Amino acid sequence: MYKYPNIDKLLSRRAFLLGLGKGALFTSILLRLMYLQLYKTDQYKVLAEKNRISLRFIPPLRGNILDRNDKILALNKNSYNLLIENTKNKSEIIKTLNKVSEVIFLNQFEIESLNNNLEKKSKKDLPIFIKKNLKWNELSTLNVNLMNLPNVFIEKGVKREYPFKNLAAHIVGYMANPKKSDLKDNPILQMIDTDVGRSGIEESFEKDLRGFPGTQHLEVNAKGREIREISKEESVRGRNIKLTIDINLQKHIHSLLKDKNGSIVVIDVNNGELLGLESSPSFDPNLFTKSISEKDWRNLIENPMSPLVNKSISGEYSPGSTFKLIVLYSALINNIIKPNDKINCSSKTEYGDRNFYCWCHKKKTGCFATQTGTRYVGPELAVAQSCDSFFYELAKRIGIERIVETARNFGLGSKSGVNLDGEKYGLVPNKSWKKKRYKKSWKIGETMITGVGQGFLTTTPIQLAVMTAMFANSGKKIFPTLLKKNQTTTDNEIFTTQTLNQKKFFKIIKNSMFSAVNKPYGTAYGSRTTKPIFAGKTGTVQVRKITKKEREFGIISNKDLPFNKRDHALFVGFAPYKNPKIAVSVVIEHGGSGSKIAAPIAKKIFSKVLS
Ligand SMILES: [Zn+2]
């Protein structure tokens, strides 16, 4: 089941956007002014009587964000801002602002922000922003009327632009006004009146991207017009950040998730580089650059599909049958089952007062029985057919604690450490967790349910991709990253090499994943291809309880259910089968069956990347 993050948090972000006053003067400015007063007195004597010195900060150019092929995902474009000198004469300022609003339209947000700034007494020496990112028609109207607007001036600045719009929004992120805590940590942010990275790479590499501001001292006359430049210190440009993402692939996976709610993760199985990471629906980060409008903001936060949430890292879903790979591996290394052992699938397993059904139950026959007449299922067939009875029994024999240990070795239950904020842990439940959480002891039935990837167990799509990559590379631990190597940044990643050294078991698992896609009895047989040959595992996750009556009279199919009661469709896989290069995880919320919905999507990704 997918849990949505707290909407209140998103709302308070809006509150910040609206409510942020432009604060107080800080020490660095004071020191600068003292310096001017003490050491540059002579220079000031030459100023004409009513002229003043105006200190302006030159914002640094922010570094660009690039994809792995140097396509620019975030850059700076020229913009024009309207400002007013902040003099002591408030009533004159207000009079002028009224005149401004007759010339150009000021929205509610801009007016509120202006009022906030005017109330701040301590900021009297810095000009106040009236409107940012002026449009061309506003610029020309203002130029005509500027003569009648004392102390008002137009300043050239830069704004952030995202040419690929909503294609990589959750990766690249967006920029918005600094929060109070940002300003406290870094007063200079206020001086340059800059936005800061608020999500994605823009946020996690803020320090590298930002650069350092310069300063400019101007002599201005009584009307606030610039007379001459007294001194200037250039700003220092921020660092470019090169990502592992391929924007062409990103475009492709974005289109595969069109009108769907879910996630796709594409990862290099050998080095953990993320080639694509898509969460759907997405949003256009350019909206935030223009001070997002009330309407656009409402559309984003009130959308039940949560476009602002990066589901690839913070969506917590039951892994469903994709988790059977972990259970099988755990059984093999713990010597619970031999590769040739078989378990009977009777389509219904009774335990305690509960019945556990194999998915084949609705066919009123055990797994594969119709094809061969036997109900005994070995590991390869159990994975290919996704036999639930096999895994109920196997999980019971292994025990929850050993399953948990294996799951953790594959990165489930902990953050993957990818360079993005907001990552969730998922949940790998065990006895002590249940005791702590519910004050109740663990039941064997819960182990059985965990064995088919349901129950308390949840995982994020990025965890599933890492898990699959580790099966593909035969147990080499990888750490997903968005940052192309050989870049010096503040984010120092630690890479360790750790291998689960059980090659023969990985061979069994990989072979069973091959069968799931390439053998007629496999659940993803319909999605097989030779370009390239791939292997994988489907998952179909129930989000509702199936009643006894429904079991007897036929289970209602997904298309006859309301959208939010339909199953989640999952697929994890890797390709090429012989020499694995990439792994993918596909999660489609309420998409229906993993084999019908998620596996065909994975096939299209493999074909795009590897054919
Ligand atoms: Zn079965």
Describe the structure.
The chain is α+β, with helices and mostly antiparallel strands and 611 residues long. It has 2 domains: 7-242, Alpha-Beta Complex (Penicillin-binding protein 2a (Domain 2)), CATH 3.90.1310; 247-281 and 310-483 and 494-610, Beta-lactamase (3-Layer(aba) Sandwich), CATH 3.40.710.10. The chain has 26 helices and 19 strands. The strands form 6 sheets. Strands 2, 3, 4, 5 and 10 form a 5-stranded mixed β-sheet that branches. It has a 5-stranded antiparallel β-sheet with strand order 12-11-19-18-17. A hairpin with a 5-residue loop joins strand 11 and strand 12 (274-280). Helix 16 (324-333) crosses helix 20 and helix 19 crosses helix 22 (444-451). It is elongated and about 95 Å long. The two termini are 34 Å apart. Residues 1-28 and 491-497 have low confidence and may be disordered. The structure holds zinc ion (ZN). Zinc ion is lined by residues 345, 358, 360, 366-367, 387-389.
- CATH C-level name of the largest domain: Alpha Beta
| CATH architecture annotation name of the largest domain | 3-Layer(aba) Sandwich
- Which hetero compounds are present in the coordinates? zinc ion
The description of the largest β-sheet is: 5 strands, mixed
Average pLDDT number: 83
CATH topology of the largest domain: Beta-lactamase
Which key terms come to mind for this protein?
611 residues; alpha+beta; Penicillin-binding protein 2a (Domain 2); Beta-lactamase; 2 domains; five-stranded mixed sheet; five-stranded antiparallel sheet; disordered N terminus; binds zinc ion
